[in-house]
């Protein structure tokens, strides 16, 4: 986005820097030349930084396939499955909220080194865990690393990137997150063939990228903006020059320094940063938008799909563990798509509707229970008349026979509490099933509509990836002034992880109470609310200096979306000497 940059000749000795708003219908040059050659070192920085995103994606994605093996080897209940998944998310929420203070104190580089070290320790604990309690400790440890990385990496990349590449480079982090999730699902598929302990390799391989990032970051510079904020001017100039490949950085350096000095005067210096953010109108509005985006990203159900994708496919009727894991890998590959646009949110909503429709059709055509054998335990399982209701009860499973046309001799029987692979008694009680063709289905029903569930998952990830996938992280790395950037990103990342905990900890229980199709219809409705929020509250930030973006939030809350998306008027803020005015088209002739 290029802009017409102009300046008003000062008519008085007013030393205060102000802002002008100019109509940019005519193309011109940006304050900093956006078409200057980009040094390759910027991409090296982005790569090693985004390894934190890769670890984020890998550690959150690998659990989908590992859980299918873990729940058998360790006989995990639904509660323990949810604990092992949501404990990582909860720990990430805590460390993300603390990450703002750590970033301000230690700097971006040190925080990334700390997160990669924590990832390494967590990976070792997970790969060596003897029981589910130690496994839980390992998942919590990994979560602490994820939280720090999730709010530090986008900030670091945004602060070292040229303005015209900032969005693209921050999006690399999101690409690495989805790439990590895809690689995790492939690793899940590869190690699913091991008869024992395959999950150890799945969870432990995160050590490799963590060590690579830890070693690489020893040779990378600190953020020049953070160094300037700490008064280390000479180090900041050297770091900026190195990042820009030896180009003349005097103008950019002076712009950043002037902005920091002005922000410190406006911020008033002392007090808790969060209180200063809330008391300052533009940063308060920016924080609301940033936290809102992170909230709707999670309420759209993305991590339910990523954490439980293999389980969801089993719920949709895919019987074999290995097949479910490989199909989950195929669906996660669609999360690497890169088509951008506002339509992606609408597509996410429609794909969730397709997913819900697949479960709805399966429920409406659920095979009936034809046999009701007497049992000494007097459980509730024999009261169910259809597989759908039997499957929703975690204490029951569906035992049946099938021929080429359908299901027959079916019954709902209590599950073996020692292993969900077979029933507590009866013809499905022996997993090997000698001379008996009976099939045991736990947590799913035989259905011919599995392909609709698979299609829904593929469409969901394909549409989600370019929209609500990278958008919240990219926007939050841009919209706060430097004095509020660490705290603002920490708060928004904390909101992301808090709602991540909420969604992942409740999904299996929500599915039991609302049915599977009800849960996904709920997520589809929440995506509609997110679409309205994005259209109404999010301004365009592309191509603007980080130091100028705060001005986009000077207007009333959630009036900026319609204003910034207008095709006829593009707003550009320019720092000049003079007074704060909004120029009309007639005023443009006064500006030289």
Architecture blueprint of SSEs:
Elements: E1 17-23, H1 40-61, H2 63-73, H3 78-106, H4 108-128, H5 132-160, H6 166-191, H7 198-204, H8 207-216, H9 224-229, H10 233-243, H11 250-267, H12 273-279, H13 281-299, H14 302-315, H15 321-333, H16 343-364, H17 387-392, E2 396-402, E3 407-414, E4 439-441, H18 450-464, H19 471-476, H20 482-537, H21 560-564, E5 571-577, E6 581-582
Parallel strand pairs: 1-6
Antiparallel strand pairs: 1-5, 2-3, 2-4
Helix pairs in contact: 1-5, 1-6, 1-8, 2-6, 2-7, 2-14, 2-15, 3-4, 3-5, 3-20, 4-5, 4-7, 4-8, 5-6, 5-20, 6-7, 6-15, 12-20, 13-20, 14-15, 14-18, 14-20, 15-18, 16-18, 16-20
Q: How would you characterize the overall build of this protein?
A:
The chain is mainly alpha-helical. It contains 21 helices and 6 strands. The chain has helices at 40-61, 63-73, 78-106, 108-128, 132-160, 166-191, 198-204, 207-216, 224-229, 233-243, 250-267, 273-279, 281-299, 302-315, 321-333, 343-364, 387-392, 450-464, 471-476, 482-537, 560-564; strands at residues 17-23, 396-402, 407-414, 439-441, 571-577, 581-582. It is elongated, with a radius of gyration of 27 Å.
